[in-house]
Amino acid sequence: MPDLDEVSASATPAVAPGGVGIVVPRDFVHSRPFIFQSGQSLPGFTLRYETYGQLNAARDNAILICHALSGDHHCAGRHSPDDRKSGWWDNLIGPGRAVDTDRFFVLCANCLGGCVGSTGPSSIDPGTGRPYGLSFPFVTLRDMVRAQKLLLDDLGVAALHAVIGGSMGGMQVLQWGIEYPGFVRRLLAMATTAREGTQAIAFNEVGRQAIMQDPAWNHGDYPKEGGPRTGLAIARMMAHITYVSDASMDRKFGRRKKAAAQGEAYTFDVQFEVESYLRHQGQSFINRFDANSYLYITRALDQFDLAQAYGSLEAAFAPVQAETLVVGFTSDWLFPPGQNRTIALALLRCGKRAAYAELDTDLGHDSFLLESEDLYTLVRGFLEREAAGVEFCP
Amino acid sequence: MPDLDEVSASATPAVAPGGVGIVVPRDFVHSRPFIFQSGQSLPGFTLRYETYGQLNAARDNAILICHALSGDHHCAGRHSPDDRKSGWWDNLIGPGRAVDTDRFFVLCANCLGGCVGSTGPSSIDPGTGRPYGLSFPFVTLRDMVRAQKLLLDDLGVAALHAVIGGSMGGMQVLQWGIEYPGFVRRLLAMATTAREGTQAIAFNEVGRQAIMQDPAWNHGDYPKEGGPRTGLAIARMMAHITYVSDASMDRKFGRRKKAAAQGEAYTFDVQFEVESYLRHQGQSFINRFDANSYLYITRALDQFDLAQAYGSLEAAFAPVQAETLVVGFTSDWLFPPGQNRTIALALLRCGKRAAYAELDTDLGHDSFLLESEDLYTLVRGFLEREAAGVEFCP
Questions:
Q1: pLDDT category of residue B259 using cuts at 50, 70 and 90
Q2: I need a labelling partner for B377 at 20 to 30 A (CA). Which of B113, B218, B234, B347 fits?
Q3: Any alpha helices (H) in chain A, and if so which ranges?
């Protein structure tokens, strides 16, 4: 394993053809008070981020990537040559890829309230020497975006060529267009919504209850390596079902049984492959995610309702100057196509430049993360044309 | 409250117009060994059941109702005049109703493995004087049906005019047609499947994990009034979401906040009405359902796959003599319309008399339980015509 300190730039030549290569996360430390939308405040915060490609002389070729609930800043490349997995959107981002790092300076930050390097409830409160836990301020999507803006200012970015994100990332994209209209040229939101719906709130609540009813949660006060691992795993298992589709799970697992369970038709242990897969999803999640962050971020999702926050969707979008592309996926039942189309329609009603594209997939909500030449074509076209000319699909 | 012992028949004149009135559950005690499909056995079992209407002289006007996972034998009438709620299918069953108790002798039994009077894992094992817990035999849908047949034999029922059920009840309906072809004239299965799908298994598994990871589960060994109440409530909250639809929850609750939470935008306590509703669903369920029964019955659902059990769906349906009506509901995403249609198509391929009807509702899986004149018309027509003439909707 190389000494990562020797790597001077975030990105070095690719390990795999087309990739951004080995990347090193960096920390942006904001040392002034930050007031949250709730009125609560922190004396400062850290955002962990990665960048790929080079900022141009005009400082206006930056593309900000916003991650989803369980994502983080590591969206492309690998952290070491023997890294088993690349960043979560590596298929989309890289030299010559749809988000072309030969042309654009791409960056992504772990969200405020997160747990992968950015300040969140698992961070140490300097006042007590212990994790913030529930004393951490409530976070909103707008708080996340405002914190990202401070990072971009610090990096000297003059304007964003685009903000791109799916799911919770897509909500941030919309918030960016509203909050900093002169700063953003293109908004690309996928598999998202302008209003967290009732069913999505319901699933979030079940996940939170699984966490908060776990005795190890202890009102949010638990040691870094402990905590409500059981509850968090259950929350993740359930949430994972909502990220995929019946069809995709059926194709992947069907009713196949684990080899070990073939002889044993009657057991409450793992019997079907899909059970084993879900348990694995739960177990791997608890090793990388903080339960309190899960509470905070799902609550931020619940509270996201642009129409409610601004009076109407049209009022919310009134300041938007960017050109917008919204992409929905037919099999996404967490943020169904209609919720995505609604965004584009509201923007069009406000006289904004907006388009909606619907991709026919059977992979569910996670479709935006998966390989799709159609998606790459849409993204590339939207980013590279001077005035994005994607046609509106009504 | 009247002395229930004074009520001589199961059903007395209606409390509310059209209803079956006050009903008294009865117990059928089978005192001979019962061998389960797993090869395990019990020295005997009890089924709690209710009946409405009168068995005719030919003993062939009986209609068996099969309940769903969380249902029980109490499907019509009330147990006392001040009963707040009537049986779970009271809207369908009664004098002059779609399942007309003036014409038919209607009965319903709590399933084997259940926890509302029938023998299940919470029953006392006479050998140990303690609840069976995990020493209870694994139960299948076929076991449930075979136990019901013993009850019907005991009551002297000569033939079933129909077997009716939704969801798990619908699976039993299909199993009835296969297992006792000469005994059943009509099969009416709603919101069901011939094969528990991958997503349904996945949700069941998350529910089981919530129960089994609750320390109070204690490998299934817990006192009657204790047990994994937290885990069971979480399982139920999640399952409830799968019984309804995004549209119906949105209409019922939207993003409305509880009055108490209006001033408090930032809390992990109940904030949205839908959260309060789900918590209530969880809390009321744990007062009426046994966690081990939940494990056993969901496992029975997982194992239900007629094509796998008989080689093919056509092989499974080969012995069927009954006329079949399958009803799917457009908004049912737990057992979607296609899974219901598949049943009717397979029966037709076998040369059986079968029809499929699809009702356009936005109430989700639970649509089969809710008021619907269209459903009543379908049921009435199917039950009352000599040769049911419901048209096949391809």
A1: confident
A2: B347
A3: 141-155, 168-179, 198-212, 229-243, 246-252, 273-286, 291-302, 306-310, 313-317, 337-349, 373-384
Question: What does the alpha-carbon distance between residue B233 and residue B285 come to, in Å, rounded to a whole number?
Answer: 7
Q: Which of B41, B230, B234 to substitute to test the interface with A, most A CBs within 10 Å? A: B234
What residues of chain A, 302 to 341, have a C-beta less than 8 Å from chain B? 302-303, 305, 308, 333, 336
Element (H, E) at B326: strand B323-329
Centre a 10 Å sphere on the Cβ of residue B345 and count the other Cβ atoms it contains. Answer: 17
Identify whether the C-beta of residue A161 lies closer than 8 Å to the C-beta of residue A101.
no
The interface pTM score, or ipTM, of the predicted complex is 0.92
Q: Give the integer Cα–Cα distance in Å for B221 and B134.
A: 8
Question: Which of B202, B209, B266 comes nearest A234 by C-beta?
Answer: B209
- Which is nearest to B267 in space by CA: A175, A294, A38, A293? A38
Residue B306's Cβ-count burial label (10 Å; 0-12, 13-18, 19+) is: buried
What is the reported pTM?
0.93
Q: How close is the nearest chain A Cα to the Cα of B72, in Å?
A: 23
Distance CA A250, CA B38 (A): 26
User: Is A197 near chain B, with CB under 8 Å?
Assistant: yes
Closest CA to B332 of B344, B324, B320, B340: B340
Domains and CATH numbers, chain B: 4-199+306-384 (3.40.50.1820), 202-298 (1.10.1740.110)
Query: What distance in Å separates the CA atoms of residue B373 and residue B281, rounded to the nearest whole number?
Result: 27
Residues above pLDDT 90, as percent of chain A: 89
Q: Which two tokens stand for residue A33?
A: 């008070």
* Confidence band of A394 (pLDDT split at 50, 70, 90): very low
Contact A255 B199 (CB under 8 A): no
The residue among A38, A204, A206, A267 with the most chain B CBs within 10 A of its CB, best to mutate, is A206
Separation between Cα atoms, residue A20 and residue B248, nearest integer Å: 46
For B249, the closest of A202, A208, A253 (CB atoms) is: A202
Cα atoms in the 13 Å half-sphere on the side-chain side of A328: 24
Beta-strand pair B41-42/B34-35:
antiparallel
- In A131-170, the residues whose Cβ lies within 8 Å of chain B are 134, 138
For β-strands B323-329 and B186-190, DSSP reports them as parallel
Say which DSSP state B126 is in.
Answer: T
Q: Is B72 a catalytic residue?
A: no
- Is B167 marked active-site? yes
Running DSSP on this structure, what letter comes out for residue A383?
H
Query: Does position B55 have pLDDT exceeding 50, yes or no?
Result: yes
For residue B27, pLDDT over 80 is answered with yes
pLDDT mean over A67-79: 97
The owner of tokens 């108790």 is B101
Judged by average pLDDT, the poorest of A141-145, B36-40, B221-225 is: B221-225
Give pLDDT, residue A305.
Answer: 98
Question: How far is residue A259's CA from residue A13's CA, in Å, rounded to a whole number?
Answer: 42
CA distance B68 to B284: 17
CA atoms within 13 A on the CB side of B161: 25
pLDDT of residue A278: 97
* Catalytic residue list contains B219: no
- Selecting from A237, A253, A265 the residue whose C-beta is nearest the C-beta of B209 gives A237
Would you give the DSSP letter of residue B392? P
Average pLDDT over residues B369-394: 77
User: A299 to chain B: which residues are within 8 Å by CB?
Assistant: 266, 268
Please tell me whether residue B356 adopts helix, strand or coil conformation: strand
Our CA-based measurement puts residue B211 at a distance from the nearest CA of chain A, in whole angstroms, of 10
**Residue for token pair 């994990």:** B209
Question: Could you read off the pLDDT of A40-60 as tens digits, one per residue?
Answer: 999 999 999 999 999 999 999
Mean pLDDT (whole number) for A358-380? 96
